[in-house]
From TrEMBL, chains A, B:
Any GO CC annotation of this UniProt entry: cytoplasm
Organism for this UniProt entry: Lentilactobacillus curieae
Gene Ontology biological-process entries: methylation; RNA processing
Keyword Methyltransferase: yes
GO MF assignments: RNA binding; RNA methyltransferase activity
Keyword entries, A-Z: Methyltransferase, Transferase
Limits of the RNA 2-O ribose methyltransferase substrate binding domain: 31-100
PANTHER family assigned: RRNA METHYLTRANSFERASE 3, RRNA METHYLTRANSFERASE 3, MITOCHONDRIAL
Record carries keyword Methyltransferase: yes
InterPro entries recorded: Alpha/beta_knot_MTases, MRM3-like_sub_bind, Ribosomal_eL30-like_sf, rRNA_Methyltransferase, SpoU_MeTrfase, SpoU_subst-bd, tRNA_m1G_MTases_N
Protein name from the UniProt record: RNA methyltransferase
Similarity annotation: Belongs to the class IV-like SAM-binding methyltransferase superfamily. RNA methyltransferase TrmH family.
Length: 255, 255
């Protein structure tokens, strides 16, 4: 175990830089922090490249492989490399995984497709909710958010260790679902839209959610097999996209 | 109309300070920004104390009373006083309202009670969702978040203009609901909890949601008439509190 005490140390600088996509791409690695994410990574059998702790006693609770480099850091360093206000004093660096761009030929099961959802907090919450609802996967389309963005990682709460994540062209994905005779549900109120409660609980579906400001793109909307809406009794004009996705997903899976 | 060009102007400094609770309390006013909130305020018949625009043509789309002070500001000032990265160039100052602390004697209808939900983004999203679901009101208990916190205001998307907001002691509120024979639903998995789908669609209820990290406090949990849980098929351990609140509210109101 190496002991680091200065924010000027090159390793500390490199960890800090992992908050940027550029550094993550360059090193093919990303950083997680806090017990919940560390636990989830371990439960999913992930091996850490590096682990950094303020209190070395914390290492007793970890399964660390022989290839993991271990560092004891100061609270000052923890504050410096953390992306939160109240760091828990435990961090790890993991290799990034390449998210498959190709649509699987035999795509089936329950999926959510996100058209240009940009806010990392909303995006992460949707991935977490899809995981909780037992969906098979999430496809990020048209989004420039990097899957290893620290805010996204935090919002996913470890769900990226459980659920299949793809980034890809939603047009291709929708075609594939339709070829397999799987319903593709859009979400936008129009004259042909049905209430989200009126389509049963199909064992295979693709639910497409749009960007909160602009909704689904017209070209994708025209390719859905059915559009759904959530009837609203009150005065709010719309729902937060992560809340809307949660309401529809839990209804469709009948959970 | 007064034209302001410097961030050093005292008024500009005062607007900037409205991001702090201290200044809001001192002046009994708060700031909103962007067209959506300005529109919602107008639709709800609110009068502005001050209105600030980068482009004076924007004033044509506003109903401004004779008591409103109007300012033309520069983009630099807009950037300075905004709490967002991409300000829309329109701001207004409104008087704060005192949120009633006393529980109404004849409390009925559909309510959500929030036990110590601290994150302003989640809190605001829950208020917005409660508004969309047609609930009668939201009670903030044990929370130190100020209702006029800029992040909360942004997340509510104007719903605080539509739905009754109270801050108060949840213990008292729960007693009042029970005196009126209105079910008080807690949300925590325990041996007596029912699925949120199995309690029908009561026209009067109080739904209590806890803090995401700690759940509902034990003392409140012991006072509920029924605890509810959301069955989860997947691997995520929990849901985001705003998503969970949305799923349960829309089920209870049968929307």
């Amino acid at each position: 175990m190496e002991i680091l005490t200065s924010n000027q140390n090159q390793r500390v600088k490199d960890w800090k830089k992992l908050q940027s996509k550029k550094q993550r791409t360059k090193t093919s690695s990303y950083i997680i922090e806090g017990w919940h994410l560390i636990d989830e990574a371990q439960k999913s059998g992930k091996e850490f490249e590096e682990i950094m702790v303020v209190d070395p006693d914390d290492l007793d609770d970890l399964n660390i492989s022989s290839s993991t480099s271990i560092f004891q850091i100061t609270e000052e360093i923890a504050d410096h490399i953390s992306s939160t206000k109240t760091p828990q004093g435990i961090f790890a660096v993991l290799p990034t995984e390449s998210y498959h761009e190709e649509v699987p030929d035999d795509v089936k099961g329950r999926w959510i497709l996100l058209d240009n959802v940009q806010d990392p907090g909303n995006l992460g919450t949707i991935v977490r909710t899809a995981d909780a609802a037992g969906l098979k996967g999430v496809v990020l389309g048209g989004s420039s958010v990097d899957i290893y963005n620290p805010k996204l990682i935090r919002s996913m709460q470890g769900s990226h260790f459980h659920i299949a994540l793809y980034s890809g062209d939603l047009d291709e994905w929708m075609n594939k679902f339709k070829q397999n005779e799987i319903p593709v549900f859009g979400t936008e109120l129009n004259e042909n839209a049905k209430s989200y409660k009126d389509v049963g609980h199909p064992s295979d579906f693709a639910l497409v959610m749009g960007n909160e400001g602009n909704g689904m793109s017209e070209s994708l909307l025209s390719k859905t097999t059915q559009n759904l809406y959530i009837p609203m009794n009150g005065n709010a004009e719309s729902l937060n996209v992560a809340v809307a996705a949660g309401i529809v997903m839990f209804q469709l899976v009948n959970s």
